[in-house]
Amino acid sequence: MKKPLHKHIGHHAKKVHGHFTKYLYERDTIFATIWVFIFIVVLGAIPLNLGVINPIKLSLKDFDSNDLSYSKLHKGEDTPLDNRIVIVNIGLADREGLSMMIDKVGSMKPKVMALDVTFDGERDPYKDSLLTETFARNKNLIAATRLELSGKDGDTIKMGGNYISTASNYAYVNFFNDNLSTIRNYDPFLEDYKKKKFKSFSSAIVEAYNPKAYKKLEKKGAHKAIINYTRTVKKYLVVENEAILAGDVDDSTFIDKIVLFGYINNNPNDIDDKKFTPMNERYYGKSIPDMNGIVVHANIISMVLDNNYIKKVPLWVNLLIAVVVCWLHMSFFVRYYLESHIWFHLVAKIAQVASAIFFVWLGIYLFDKYRLKVDLKMSLIVIVLAVDVIYFYEAWAVWMHKKFNYKTVFKPHHH
Amino acid sequence: MKQLQFLILLCSFTVVASAQNSFLLYSFKGNVSVVENNVEAKAKVGKPLNAGATVKVAAGSAVTLICNEAAMFTLTKAGTYPLSKFGDSCRVSSNSVSANYVKYVWASMTKSSGSAGSNRKAYMNTVGAVSRGGMNNVWIDNRLDTINYSSGNIFPLSWKSYAEAKDFEFSLYSNDNISTPIYSNMLTKLKISIGTFSGKMKQGNSYYWTAAIKGEENDDLKIINYVSKETFNAVLETIKLQGAAFEAPAEQAYRIAFMLEDAHYLSEAYQYYSKAATLDAANALYRSTLMSFKKDYEIK
Predict the structure, then answer these.
(1) Which pLDDT tens digit goes with each residue over B240-285?
(2) Residue B145 and residue B208 share a domain
């Protein structure tokens, strides 16, 4: 008699379940799993940079699988325009041009203005004096400064790039990142050796615009925060400086808004003040920077105002996930290694590819849905290592069996 | 109970009816004006507009609007546009990252990345020189710089994009007016067959054409001469007369094709290359030349 469909499915599910669990509680599976982690610790403890000639490691140095979300999976494309922020493209305006621009926008009653430009040394005295007066006149203007770190621990801090020194508020625009790396984090605050607190550009803007949101940020302390990128430059209203001076901008545009003055250029060949971000179209290998610094600041401000922070899963959780993943895979691999050795390598490779696809998806899903950043790199590494460790473990278990009568499911030269 | 249901229905209808689209004037260039409450005013960046407003775009101007702070669209053609008609442009596609991931993984696993040897046009565009006269994101092969055309609907005009773009605007200009196109077409492909716009041209006249990413400009104009049948026949006869005494039909077709290509009659050259390959299907040279020609000019 033919089996009903649900029994048929149930039978197959039980069979697949058996593939994973048959050896799950075997001592060999548990010890082989432990050996995988011993290998990782030992390899990690070698005081040599073995990746120096490894092109894969070098090219993936700055790789984060979550970046796929933006570049290939269209994350953020349906994010609405942030109508609290207006960016004014300063173009190539000089100090006089900036002065006129700030005064004009200042007259349109924005809540906060912030200028993402540093000024090193004197230039034309007439133009310098115009900007000095503009800075003094506009009390809601936050000017950019560059922190210069010195001392053995880099905790002696002095401000630079603030030759025009009459602004009411200065905030630093440094991203403490390698120039060629993707900007994923920023420091909302920085303290020097005297515990003097410096505010980042975005933090100072948020403080002036929404003190409640600033308090929440302040509670997080002076730690690196992951930037939740949600918008490309097209998701902010960008106004050209010429349009402002020509009166082509609606009066209501700036009222009670955050106005960011910065350099915007959509020309891919112009990389002045452009940074690599996770929103880059090309998420691995050689690329060109994709986002102007002012848009990075705007993304940070949007994140803080919306309380839209990314939560990072603690290391111990990542490790726990890796242990469970390794254990399950090891049980599965041991089953094929012992019972269907002819298929072992094929099944192991397929399982590795399938697991890699699954775990990358899982990471992306958690990141997209719950803003949860889980580092599944370790899980992927253990899956790759598990196959090689089985061979080592077999030899070790057989040797232990001979020497100490260690009980094992592995038999000498079984394949 | 019925009264309550009616009230709920009425409330729902009121809510739906009042949920009008709101627009924001994101950017504009040229001469653009806005009519609101029968009052016409010059367009201003950042101006909020309701669905009852009308936007007027003059020739050579463009305006970009954002609907409901989410959907961005650009009007580039001259005309008067009541915003109430742009309800469709307000729809925002909600992306499922998981679904897109499955599509991406599948596409990556099944699609070959190709190699330099198999597609020379795609891999021979890295230019080792600077360019003067502005930055174009669209590159048009110099072999298409001047084309003589008399017949054939298949041959395409093609280009390559340096930027990741989905929409391209093809424009055809008459010889005496390169500011207003006599024909323009928004395309998703990187080519357009001449047959699509040949009806807009008159034999014996020269035209300019270009292609640009939607919303951008490309001042790199190429020439297409719409040659009369008589002129082409005269050229063809001259070429035919230059043949050897004992020339097989396939050989003759191949030679004519080569000489027509040299004389910039690309559409006609394609017909003769095809003819040569058909007449002598066993000839590897004819076949490979036809394949290369098709690859070079994006003929599918």
Answers:
(1) 888 887 888 999 999 999 999 988 999 999 999 999 999 998 998 8
(2) yes
Distance CA(A17)–CA(A43), nearest Å, equals: 33
B96 inside domain:
no
**CB contact (8 A) between residue B45 and residue A249:** yes
All residues of chain A having their beta carbon less than 8 Å from the beta carbon of residue B68 are 80
Q: How far apart are CA A351 and CA B50, in angstroms?
A: 55
Residue type, position A195, single letter:
K
Bridge-based pairing of strands A311-312 and B48-50 is unpaired
Q: Looking at CA atoms only, how far is residue B159 from chain A in angstroms?
A: 19
In terms of residue numbers, what domain contains B259? Answer: 230-296
Asked whether the beta carbons of A248 and B45 are under 8 A apart, the reply is yes
Assembly ipTM = 0.80
Digit-coded pLDDT (tens) for B88-98 = 878 776 678 88
Indicate whether B145 pLDDT > 90: no
Residue with tokens 């010059």: B42
Number of domains in chain B: 3
**Rounded Cα gap, residues B280 and B256, in angstroms:** 15
> B252, B161, B17: which is closest to A281 by C-alpha?
B161
Say yes or no: B143 and B219 in one domain.
yes
Domain boundary among B226, B261, B278: B226
Whether B98 is covered by a domain: the verdict is: no
List the domain boundaries for chain A: 18-47+313-404, 85-309
| Interface mutation target, options A66, A78, A232, A287, chain B, most CBs of B under 10 Å | A78
**Angle, nearest 10°, between helix axes A201-209 and A211-219?**
140
Among chain A residues, the shortest Cα distance to B73 is held by A234
pTM: 0.70
Note whether B162 and B175 are same-domain residues: yes
Q: What number is the average pLDDT over the span B193-211?
A: 90
Domain end (from B165, B199, B226): B226
Kindly give the interhelix angle for A27-45 and A315-339, rounded to the nearest 10 degrees: 130
B180 shares its domain with B211: yes
3-state helix, strand, coil in chain A (%, to 5): 50, 15, 35
List the beta strands (DSSP E) in chain B. Answer: 22-29, 32-36, 39-42, 48-50, 54-57, 62-67, 71-75, 79-82, 138-139, 146-149, 156-158, 160-161, 168-174, 183-187, 191-193, 206-213, 222-226
Contact B98 A253 (CB under 8 A): no
Residue A17 CB coordination number (10 Å): 10
- The residues with which A143 forms a beta bridge, in sequence order, are A115, A170
Among the residue ranges A64-78, B34-48, B257-271, the one predicted with the least confidence is A64-78
* B288 lies in the same domain as B238: yes
Residue in chain A closest to B97 (alpha carbons) equals A73
Contact B30, B61 (CB under 8 A): yes
Look-up of token digits 């953020």? A76
Backbone angles phi, psi at B17, to 5 degrees: -65, -35
Assigned token pair, A263: 């350099």
Has residue B100 been placed in a domain?
Answer: no
Residue B125 belongs to a domain: no
- The whole-number average pLDDT for the span B112-141 is 66
